[in-house]
Amino acid sequence: MEVQIQHKNQLVERCKKGDKTAQFSLYKQYYKAMYNTALRIVNNSFEAEDIMQESFLAAFTKLDSFSETVTFGAWLKRIVINKSLTALKNNNKLETVSLEKVTVKDVEDEKHDYSLLKTSDILNKVAQLKNNYKVALTLNLIEGYDYEEIAQIMDISYENSRTTVSRAKNKLRQLLSQ
């Protein structure tokens, strides 16, 4: 594992010097994961492809701002997520609701056996959610961000982040139990 990290760090250093072969090597290692990240957020394959390409261009032109306190993949994923959210906002697809307009109801947890569901079925149900639910749920469950990070990424309050994720999970449960 440490050899891979050293290799990737060497590739990043070569990229900083303008080495196109190193850039292509990093691209090959990360393009599928970055495309899938963008696709889960924007839900459009053409737009996800554009976002992925723009993210790599941005990353390669801003490599001087990359610090090795995080991995290159995590840094690149953050760029992809930010560009995906910007695309959603530009398309007026991301709807946010202020916390003052939200009423929170306690919902009893119903026990369902979701172990028989296929991953593709779950992802199809996630795609049916409202965009802000889909983004919040993707960032939380798939990308692994906590509520505070989601609040920063989506430019909403911490409380709204928690509420949005909770409502998205409840809505997903409803869709899965149908």
CATH architecture of the largest domain: Orthogonal Bundle
The arrangement of helices and strands along the chain is HHHHHHHH
Main beta-sheet strand count, sense and barrel state: none
The N- to C-terminal Cα distance equals 43 Å
Task: Write up what this structure looks like.
It is built from eight helices and no strands. It has 178 residues and is an all-alpha fold. The protein is elongated. The mean pLDDT is 82.
Keywords:
Rna Polymerase Sigma Factor, Chain: A; 2 domains; mainly alpha; Arc Repressor Mutant, subunit A; 8 helices; 178 residues
Compact summary:
Helix content is 69%, strand content 0%. With 178 residues, the protein is mainly alpha-helical.
List the helices and strands and how they pair.
Elements: H1 2-16, H2 20-42, H3 45-61, H4 72-90, H5 119-127, H6 131-142, H7 147-154, H8 158-177
Helix pairs in contact: 1-2, 2-3, 2-4, 3-4, 6-8, 7-8
